[in-house]
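tokens incoming
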């Protein structure tokens, strides 16, 4: 009897979750002026439209608002500004042509730097071992060991 109740609850829960997923997956979130403005730079001053306080930026925000009211998507609005003002208006470089270097260069620098560090540390290790300094422990006699222990005990007694 208890197993049937648990099974019914699990089925009801899974149906409820399925309904929620189906109805919320179709929701499209409205595009905001700030969201679009954060992807477009002002021509000439390199500030984003969403944060610039000039009159020209206010005009661009109003233009974006009008495009949103017409039902344009963020991509369509950005493409419209790129067609009107050119590639320099886009806040992030495109991933094609010469701008591709801006996307690849940081990773390339990290890889080359890692190889360089590995090479240098490997050379240092070889030089260290060639000088006979590798993993050698100091060998001291038992008399010297006792002498050091006595000095250490004397120092402890001074402070304790």
């Amino acid at each position: 009897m208890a197993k049937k109740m648990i099974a019914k609850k699990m089925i009801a829960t899974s149906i409820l979750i399925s309904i929620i997923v189906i109805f919320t997956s179709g929701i499209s979130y409205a595009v905001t002026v700030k969201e679009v403005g954060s992807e477009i730079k002002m021509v000439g001053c390199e500030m984003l439209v969403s944060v610039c306080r000039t009159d020209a930026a206010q005009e661009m925000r109003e233009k974006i608002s009008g495009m949103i009211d017409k039902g344009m998507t963020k991509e369509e609005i950005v493409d419209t500004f790129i067609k009107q003002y050119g590639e320099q208006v886009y806040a992030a470089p495109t991933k094609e042509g010469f701008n591709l270097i801006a996307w690849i260069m940081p990773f390339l620098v990290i890889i080359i730097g890692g190889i360089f560090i590995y090479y240098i540390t490997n050379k240092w290790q070889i030089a260290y071992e060639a000088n006979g300094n590798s993993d050698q422990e100091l060998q001291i006699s038992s008399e010297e060991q006792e002498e050091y222990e006595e000095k250490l005990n004397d120092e402890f007694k001074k402070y304790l």
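note: Residues 99-159 form one domain.
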